[in-house]
C-alpha cells in the first residue's frame, strides 16, 4: 500500500466534505486527511489500495484539483 500527498484547491470544510464523498467509494474511512492550514492545502492518503491517478480523478469529480506532490 502507498502513501500519497496531494496539493489541492480545497478551502473549507464544505470543500473537504464534497471530496470526502468522492473518495469514500475508493478508500476506507480514516485513510485520508486534509491540512487546510498548509499553503498547498494538502490531502494525505495512507494505505491507498488505488493509484494516485484514481484519487486525482475522484477529487476532480467533486469539482476540485489534486496534484501529486509526494509518493511513498
Automatic annotation (TrEMBL):
Highest taxon above the source species: Bacteria
InterPro entries recorded: HMA_dom, HMA_dom_sf
GO molecular function, one term: metal ion binding
Residue ranges annotated for the HMA domain, each copy included: 1-67
Name the UniProt record assigns to this protein: Heavy-metal-associated domain-containing protein
Originating organism: Candidatus Merdimorpha stercoravium
Amino acid at each position: 500500500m502507498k502513501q500519497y500527498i496531494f496539493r489541492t484547491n480545497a478551502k473549507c470544510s464544505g470543500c473537504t466534505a464534497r471530496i470526502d464523498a468522492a473518495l469514500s467509494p475508493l478508500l476506507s474511512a480514516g485513510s485520508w486527511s486534509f491540512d487546510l492550514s498548509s499553503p498547498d492545502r494538502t490531502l494525505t492518503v495512507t494505505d491507498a489500495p488505488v493509484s494516485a491517478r484514481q484519487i486525482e480523478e475522484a477529487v476532480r469529480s467533486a469539482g476540485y484539483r489534486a496534484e501529486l506532490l509526494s509518493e511513498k
